[in-house]
Amino acid sequence: MEVKVYNQEGSEIGTINLNEKLFGAELKPHVVHQYVVNYLANQRQGNANSKTRAEVAGGGSKPWRQKGTGRARAGTNSSPIWRSGGVTFGPKPRCYYNRFPKRMKRVAQISAFSDKAQSDNIKVIDNLQLPEIKTRNMVAILDRLGLDRKKCLILDEGVNGNLVLSVQNLQNVKYCRAGLANTYDIINADVLLFTKAGLEKVEEVFAS
């Protein structure tokens, strides 16, 4: 499978072959779905907490005597039926983490890359070395590539501080080191924008 290679001016400067093992594999949407469910669950902090009747302030002595007042019986003001009382079956801190098998994770990643390639949502640029930190310059490059209105995941390799800082204020653009790309970020993007170095790294890590 061939894709065009562009420079920062938006001009086509050649083509490059994509690795068939990574970008031409059979799609496994059910595995991708399982990965995404697991990934989102693992992002949860599990900090939600509510106090039970044993933890709220109050309690202690009986609010009033059992009989003779004309009011309903009450044993404590920390009861869940009282205002500012404890919460019955409320949330408590918990861990949502679940392990996901490495083989299934690899299948999901390959399937996600293949889906982008087969739907023609991959672009390759020779490099993205910016001379200065300028969000405006990055917006201009994306505009010349026709990606200004699309959710874009940039996959590059090596230290590129100017690029990282130039895209951090762009709502629809995310930067990621190529070897650390995860399935959720891949399928969440409309287009994958690879640098040549990033594409080589992805093929080295995920297609080996």
Architecture overview:
The chain is of the alpha/beta class. The chain has 2 domains: 2-44 and 100-206, Ribosomal Protein L4, Chain: A (3-Layer(aba) Sandwich); 48-95, no CATH class. It is 33% helix and 14% strand. The protein has helices spanning 20-23, 29-42, 102-118, 135-144, 161-167, 183-188, 196-206; strands at 2-6, 12-17, 122-125, 152-156, 173-177, 191-195. Helix 4 crosses helix 5. The model has no long low-confidence stretch (mean pLDDT 93).
Task: Summarize, please.
The protein folds into two domains: 150 residues, Ribosomal protein L4/L1 (Ribosomal Protein L4, Chain: A, 3-Layer(aba) Sandwich); 48 residues, no CATH class.
Keyword list:
alpha/beta; about 210 residues; 2 domains; Ribosomal Protein L4, Chain: A; 7 helices; elongated; about 15% strand
Strand content: 5-15%
CATH architecture of the largest domain: 3-Layer(aba) Sandwich
Radius of gyration: 27 Å
Number of strands: 6
CATH homologous superfamily name of the largest domain? Ribosomal protein L4/L1
Structural domain tally? 2
Strand-pairing-aware structural class: alpha/beta
Topology (elements, then pairings):
Layout: E1 2-6, E2 12-17, H1 20-23, H2 29-42, H3 102-118, E3 122-125, H4 135-144, E4 152-156, H5 161-167, E5 173-177, H6 183-188, E6 191-195, H7 196-206
Parallel strand pairs: 1-3, 3-6, 4-5, 4-6
Antiparallel strand pairs: 1-2
Helix pairs in contact: 2-3, 4-5
